[in-house]
Structure formats: C-alpha cells, structure tokens
Amino acid sequence: MICPSCGPNPVDTIWDGVTLSFNRKHLRSTIQPPTTIHDTSPCNNRRYLVKPQLIPDKELRRSLSTIVSSPHLKQLGALLSKSDDLPLTEKEQKSVRKLIELVPVVEEQLNEVNTSLGQFFGRIFGLRAIISCPPARAYIALFQQIAAEESVLQMANRPALIALGGLLESSSLISAKILEIPAIHLVIQECWASSDNGLPNDVLGTLKWFHSRAMEVLTKALSNGQSSSPELATIPECDWRESGCYYSIPQIRNRPKYPSLKHDTRPELGDDRGGKCSKFYNQYGKQRLTGGIMGVWCTHSICYGFHFIPVGEGRNDVFSAIYTRWPTAPKRIIYDFACALSPYSLTREADFFADTSFNIDTFHAKGHTKCSPAAFLKTYSEVDPRAIHINSSAAECGNSGISRIRKAVSYMTQERAIVYTRVFLSYWNRQRIRKLNEAMV
Ligand SMILES: [Zn+2]
Ligand SMILES: [Zn+2]
C-alpha cells in the first residue's frame, strides 16, 4: 500500500470517511483506532485559541462581510448616482439602504484597526468609489477573507507567511507571485493590470498589516501550552486483523491527552459545529451499524491505509491517524470537513501542522455555505494548476470506490469485514500501480 511515485510518506493526502460498516452486535473489544488513548500517551496542556481571526472584533467582521458579500453592490452605485428608475423590490431597496448606512461606519472602524486597511477599503468600497466603478472581483474576494470567521491561518499557513514576508521585504513586487495565498496573489495582479505605477501604498500597507497580524496569531498558536512530546519510536502494534487499523506507515507516536480541552475526544454527531460551518457530519450508525472506516489516499488514488471507527466519523480520526504515524505532517490534507479539522489540529499540535494546507475538494464542497473561500481547494486551483489534479483524484477515492463492497461488508463479522476491506483495497491499489507503471515506461 505504497505509491511508487509518492513514496512512503505522501505529501498530498486525501482523507475520506466511508460508510463501510458492519453490525454493531459484531463489534469486539479488540478494535483499536488511532484515536485510542493509552497509559503511555503524552499529556499536552493546550488551551483553546482565543480570537484567531484576522479582525478580532466580531461585529466589525459581520458588518464588513455584509457589505462585501452583498448581491446588491452593483445597484448601490446606480442608486447613489440618482438613477432611481431601478426596478428594485421593497426588500432590495431596504438592503441597499442598509449598505449605504454601513459603508462609512465600516470604513471608519477599519481605519482604527489599521489606517492602510481603512484607506484601501475606502478607495474601493467607499460610497464615492462605488458610483464611479463597481469593485473588481479580486478586491471582493480579498475582503471576504479578511472578514472571515475562520482563523487567519486557514488563509495563510507558516510557509505562506514566510513567502509573503520575503516578498514584502524584497521590493520586487513587480513580478510578485504568491500562489500560496490566492486572494493576495489576485489582488496584486489586479493592481498591476489596472495601473503601471505598481502597488498603491494602501495595498502595500494592508499586506504588511496582514502579515504582522497573521504572524501574531501563529506565534500564539505555537506557544500554546506545555508539551511533553516523546521521542519518536516505533510502537509495537497489535495485529491489524484484530485492531481494524492498517496503515503502510508504522506508528511512531501515541495520541496525546489534552486535559485542558474540555471536549477533546467527544464524538461528533452532527450538533457540534460551533455555529460556523453549515455542513453537518453524516449521521452514521443510525441503522445499528458501526461508524465506517477512515481511509487515506495519495493523489494517484492509491490507498495508504485505513482504520475502522466504532462510532461516528470526526476530525479526531484524521488528526490522530496523521499525528500517530507521519514523521512530519503532510503538506496538503484534503478532507470533507477540512474547515473544522484545521482549527482542531492547530489547537492541539500547532508546530506539527503549521506547514499544512487544509482544503475541501470540489466534490465535497456542497453544504459548506458559510465557510471562507480559503478552505476550498478550488480557490487554489484557480491560480495553481497543480491543485486541479488533486481535485480530480479526490473525487475518485474513498466512497466512490469502496461503495462496491458496502453491502457485502454490512453482513460480516468484525474480523471478516477487516480482512475483506484490506484485500479489496490491495486489489484496488494493484490496478492503479500497474497503470501508473505503464504510464511511466
Ligand atoms: Zn465548512
Ligand atoms: Zn501517489
């Protein structure tokens, strides 16, 4: 279960929780997912991260988001230039009036956060600016992400911040490419496309503010609590036929305990979304079945391993599988609930996950209506063609492949289900490795 092209520790990984379950009455106590806490588990004293958003003030985030996400931005210009013949319904009129009220207030408040940011906003979204020219898409997208409820680290991880820092220092912003942060990349491009004079000072100042604020959040996350991370060692594993846990990467850590995180290992059954993401976890286990399996694939759709989950699927399954086995975290984690996995992982092991991008592929994007564009793989594939390939493999792995054995497994006993799944995935891999070898010859 190793891809000849990606090697023993793939850097781009696709995770999927698959409804491949057997009857709960066959569940035996030998089952041992990576989420299991052992006596020898290290004890890390982390706390929940406070205000990791770019703009700490919640009200300001909400008002800014109302403006830049409004479908009526264009009508605003027409209405302000007194062309009252717009066929607006009463509801639309009301929302446009609200915008007219909100824009100057937000401009002033952003000015207090950072003067460049306030000026930049005023120049693009100010009432006078909007009359002469509706805002370009790149500016709307950037301000939507500035207003996001997510941590700023979703938008820019450690390598992206280092790249941006280098860019700001080097004054070589003419040919600047910052593919790691698509929203900023597209704004720089837009500035150069619309003027030969380079980046306006307010944009430059805003980027400097962004960088320093994001570094502040990163530093706080990295210094979160005491850790007793043990030396790496190969941990003796139980027989996979008993434990239901099979990965081609050997286990090198136990899942730590986090006594200061109140809800650390609580199973997620669809209610605990913190009011942020609108997509709910699938309600597994409704029909007296177990929680299915969690599996991981490389971008060539080759499966690197899986584990059976006694109840419910959650972020803990992905977090624990990676932390217990990967020597360093994968560069990219594609997962249906990446928007929730990212804060979960960074709260617990920020240093380990600081260089990772957490993304939702297009196939799973449906339902995440409230999440920041920075969470979606699509945002990255718009500027970086490498991401397009990852997206198409993500649709092929996981559920769509395994659905063929779902019915058969639902009638099996535990050990039979485990062995059958492993054999199926080995055949699956062999076919793909053959194709890959043929293509390489
Ligand atoms: Zn989401
Ligand atoms: Zn591969």
Q: Top keywords for this entry?
A:
single chain; 441 residues; alpha/beta; 2 domains; 18 helices; 47% helix; elongated; binds zinc ion
* N-to-C SSE string, H for helix and E for strand: EHHHHHHHHHHHEEEHEHHEHHHH
Helix content: 40-55%
Q: Which class of secondary structure composition applies to the elements? A: alpha/beta
Bound molecules: zinc ion
* Total beta strands: 6
User: Biggest β-sheet: count, sense, barrel?
Assistant: 6 strands, mixed
- Give the overall shape, derived from the CA principal axes: elongated
Across the major sheet, the strand order is 2-4-3-1-5-6
Question: How large, in whole angstroms, is the Cα Rg?
Answer: 24 Å
Q: Report the end-to-end length measured between terminal Cα atoms.
A: 21 Å
Q: Return the average pLDDT rounded to an integer.
A: 87
- Number of domains as seen in the coordinates: 2
Number of continuous helical runs: 18
Uncertain stretches of 5 or more adjacent residues: 269-275
Share of residues in strands: 5-15%
Fold topology:
Layout lengths: L11 E7 L39 H11 L4 H8 L9 H24 L1 H11 L1 H6 L4 H10 L5 H4 L2 H13 L11 H13 L6 H22 L17 H4 L1 E3 L45 E5 L5 E6 L6 H11 L6 E3 L3 H11 L1 H4 L3 E3 L17 H5 L4 H11 L2 H12 L3 H27 L1
Parallel strand pairs: 1-5, 5-6
Antiparallel strand pairs: 1-3, 2-4, 3-4
Bound molecules: zinc ion (2 copies).
The site of one zinc ion has 5 residues, from loops.
